[in-house]
Structures
1.
Amino acid sequence: MNPKQFLKIGGAVLALAGVLGFVGVIGPTPEQSAFGDSWWFDNSENWAHLVLGAVALLASAMLSGGMQRFLVKLLGVVGVLVGLYSLVIGPNFLGANLQNPLDTILHLAIGAWALWASRSSTKMTA
């Protein structure tokens, strides 16, 4: 997988997660989610997912291969750092509530995936 593919797939998944996250927030309790009772996102996370997903999709179409690689590497570092922050320091990160262990695992996994994708050739077609 190359950076462009990561931005396309990751961007689509993030945007979808942001939209679906709002579906649960509208429900009777904030803990009710389209993802189930054990995994929900607050409004800060939903907006972050939606905006970052849209930016990733735009970047996959508009940025050069070198800039895509840089962006994916940056996303990887941020993902790993957010995962480590919620694991070591606590669940509140810039207003987002990362109290669920699945949030930590997801951020670490996505961060590692992005770092791996940033090492691949941008010359491959997506």
Note: The mean pLDDT is 81.
2.
Amino acid sequence: MRTSLRLSRPLLALAVAAAPASFGCGRQAGEPSAASPERAAVVRFWERLGEATTLRMKGDCAAAERAYEAALALDPRHEDALYYVGQCLRELGRPLDARKAFSRLVETNPASARGHLALGALLASPDPLEPLDLDAAERHFRRAHEINAEETGPMLRLGEVLLMRGRVGEARGWLEAAANTNPKSVEAPFLAGYVLWESGDGLGARSFYEKARRASQAEAPPQGVLGEGDRKGPRGTAAQPLTSPMGRTLFGEDSWPLSQALAPKMDAAYRAVRERRRLLLLRSGA
């Protein structure tokens, strides 16, 4: 039977330290010894995974990707390794390979909310170099929400996809839910206002637009630590293009100017959203 590689570091260290040095004394039948190939593979796996994590935290995605692949060669089903190699591949401009890694993750664990969210984000990206598959993105965002209904990310992203697909009533429901669940979100109320603006409800649109503006101008969290929905940098600077694991949202760039002193007027901001939607639909072939 294959030895699991999913031991925590402290348990692994204790297991190695406690293993008898000779004769296998005290070792249960079938348990690998400290010098066995199975135990050596466990040690090599954690070494590669630790190396990959360190490189990723330093921003060296190319080297981190190689280290994650080395770890996956030892345990092809390790969820953290699959998730982070996918993120590294996406950062390296290899979206098709990233999609394969995320797909392997949700095949390994169909209940991986982060796996489904990562796939949905990849398939609903405004980046012209990444695949735009709104049908598949919708399925993955719905699944991520089913697994973790408290997370507002899938709500926002699902609202964006439904808006793109012209299902504005559904889109409004998801966007308002995201705005109510996460008061710090800028994009959710901004897009909820856009849906109302397109329907001719100027007063309703104004209410959500102003809510988005207030959220965009909120104070930065203590010590510059960003939470979900935060839009400020450590010194209160305007939010920059997303470098989060979820990447850029479909309409995120249209909400960024709200934090500026000379924020666009509501009509101008929403005309920009309308034009971006038109261009994205052309790209998607819808």
Note: The radius of gyration is 23 Å.
